[in-house]
Amino acid sequence: MSAPQRPGTADEARERAEQLRELIAHHSERYYVVDDPEISDADFDALVDELAALESAFPELVTPDSPTQHVGGGPAAAFAEVRHRSPMMSLDKTTSYEELLAWGARMERYVSGPVELTCEPKIDGLATSLLYERGRLVRAATRGDGVVGEGVTANVATVGEIPERIPAPFPEVVEVRGEIYMAISAFEALNSRQAELGARRFINPRNAAAGSLRQKDPAVTATRELGFFAYQVGEMDGGPAFERHTETLEWLRHSGFPVNPHIRVVGTLEEVHQYCKRWEADRHGLDYEIDGVVVKVDDLAQRRQLGTTSRAPRWAIAYKFPPEERTTLLRDIMVSIGRTGKATPFAILEPVVVGGARVGMATLHNADQVEAKDVRPGDTVVVRRAGDVIPEVRAPVLGLRPEGLPKWRFPGACPVCGEPLVRLEGESDTFCVNADCPGQRVQRIAHFASRGAMDIEHLGERTVGQFVRAGLLGDVADVYRLDLDAVREMEGWGDTSVANLAAAIEASKSRPLANLLVGLSIRHLGTTGAQVLARAFGHLDRILAASAEEMAAVEGVGPVIAASVQEFFALDTNREVIERLRAAGVNLEGPAEDGMPQVLLGRSVVVTGTLQQRTREQAEAAITARGGKSPGSVSKRTTAVVVGADPGAAKLAKAAELGVPLLDEDAFAVLLDTGRLPGAEPG
Q1: d(CA 8, CA 5)
Q2: 593-624 burial string, b = 16+ CB within 10 Å, else e?
Q3: What is the CATH number of domain 325-402?
Q4: Of 365, 386, 389, 387, residue with least CA distance to 375
Q5: By the number of CB atoms within 10 A of the CB, which of 327, 403, 424, 510 ranks highest?
Q6: What's the rounded Cα separation, in Å, for the pair 268 and 266?
Q7: What does the pLDDT read at residue 255?
């Protein structure tokens, strides 16, 4: 959704405001009542923000029924209306430290002295009100428009994490507010069941939770594995007196309600911002989706001083993360050919900013996924980009599908070479089986030169494509007899760039055997399997001579990898490539640290950032050569984290949370030599 043009006159502003109110009303009904949204949360927020900006610039446009003056949408007709004892208000939002500081400055008009703040992950679910009388759940309602919600008591009673009774001593009446959500693992399992039944797949966990809670039959809701986090005590009659919000959370825990374990109390807005950035980086380490952080004043007396506006409390604010889902136009579906011949469909999109990055393409995985999602060129689709994960098309917005839009069919021929595409029996993927396909050739050579393989700087996919089209490269062995004089004559290449490329190619000859095995694009053989094979056999010639049974007997290899490796080296064309690599002086031995004492056996060491003394791959190889593992993420099983320059913020945050030791390069050297963490007692 592109940025709107700001109206220049009052008449233009009035016309646009009316358009926005109609759009917002329509999408509110789709979201809150019909439970079948046509646009993403971020796109809906953009409409509301545009209307708020117009009303700020032209105050005469503000009306009592404006969407900026109330919360959410009305209840669905399928459920009885419930009037909340006190309004369930919305929250003002912020997306930057500067806006946080502005919020703090506004609070100073109402309260003086220090203000402590609670920070909690903002669960992407459904705000829910639970009313207990004499300790028993008597009513549950959705937020609705903030004043009137939907009565969903029977459905909420099936959520196992919500207590039916509160243990004594209990208040005469208490309202508990919280968020009903669906865990990511439960969402994935639900969609798998939906696919098996040929039923509609849910777009995201929030959509699935909403659909599950609003089932007419509570027995269906009971099968959907909904969760709940309590975050607020509403009205209370006859209960304990609280002075701070954190005291209410402790009472909720004691009363049997789940309260998010990551809630923290801080004393400054800078600490608030650090908390927000930490969870923005680490949000995917949770089994539930969060879209921001909720910040609240902890002192209840200060809250009363701050009061509320017409729609939001002044004592709370939501720090929103960049949206990970947006809606946009699917222009076309095309197919790419990978290094193994795998044909992967991908979407050409109307560019949109998702997760803080501009996205114009997204993966569609395979033919089965396109069929299951039923996305078609011309659809409006939901696009998701989570962290560093490749963007994907989640689902079409069926309510916006043009009439008569034809289904997309997977092509029968390779889009690069024109040879037939083949789907292997028992597999979900489709392949071009023409080994001479130019598309595969470029991808194989680019992979061979990539960082995880032979690490040849200046030889990326675009350059490889340029050289292949010029007839300078035909396979990976051609890299070592590249005609540098011909390269020098090509556009964009000069003496310096050619010299740098030549040096990088020469340096790659000494890479460990495991890197070469990875670079050869052997199906099913990844980094770990290559390291295991290299360590077990010590030389490529011994792998060439080994039977599939001998390779499969190596722990960490198995029959699938072993059969694939043997099939690869049984082909004369591949053997010929190996002999040309040997003649070029490429290292066929490894690992370089073979025979090292297994001082890290059974231990896990994570490497993050750029090291000075070793490349990342060399550091990881040093760990595995000593019997350890070097995964890409930090967990409670991690022994230590080796930290170089520009480390990953999420890994450091996770290490701090779990108390995992951080090592510099000198301490890492000690660990490799002795197996001990610096400062630890011998033995």
Answers
A1: 9
A2: bbebeeebeebbbbbbeebeebebbbbbbbbb
A3: 2.40.50.140
A4: 365
A5: 327
A6: 6
A7: 96
Q: Cβ distance 372 to 195 under 8 Å?
A: yes
Pick from 603, 592, 615, 595: nearest CA to 675: 603
Nearest CA-CA partner of 381 in 357, 368, 367, 363: 363
Contact yes or no for 518/530 (Cβ under 8 A): yes
What class has domain 438-508? Answer: mainly alpha
Q: What's the CATH architecture for 89-320?
A: 2-Layer Sandwich (3.30)
| Catalytic residue set | 122
Nearest-angstrom CA–CA distance, 12 and 142: 37
Would you call 528 helix, strand, or coil by DSSP? Answer: helix
Q: What is the pTM of this model?
A: 0.59
Tokens of 286: 């949770």
The class level of CATH for 513-583 reads mainly alpha
How do residues 607-644 score in pLDDT, each as one tens digit?
988 888 887 777 887 887 787 888 878 888 899 999 98
Taking residue 219's Cβ as centre, other Cβ atoms within 10 Å add up to 10
Query: Which structure tokens are listed for 152?
Result: 């969903």
d(CA 557, CA 554): 6
Is 587:539 a contact under the CB 8 Å cutoff?
no
Residue 497 is which amino acid? S
How far apart are alpha carbons 397 and 327 in whole angstroms? 8
Q: Spell out the alpha helix ranges (H) of 198-268.
A: 205-213, 218-222, 245-254
Q: Count H helices, E strands: the chain? A: 24, 21
Burial 333-356 (b: 16+ CB within 10 A, else e): bebebbbbbbbbbbbebbebebbe
- pLDDT tens track for 45-98: 788 888 888 877 777 777 766 777 655 555 554 578 899 989 999 899 998 999
CA–CA dist 309, 235 (Å, integer):
19
Superfamily for domain range 604-674? BRCT domain (3.40.50.10190)
Backbone phi, psi, residue 22, to 5°: -65, -45
Which amino acid is it at 443? Q
DSSP annotation of 613 reads S
Q: Is 614 helix (H, G, I), strand (E, B) or coil?
A: coil
Residue range(s) occupied by CATH 1.10.287.610 in the chain: 10-69
Other beta carbons within 10 angstroms of residue 661's beta carbon come to: 16
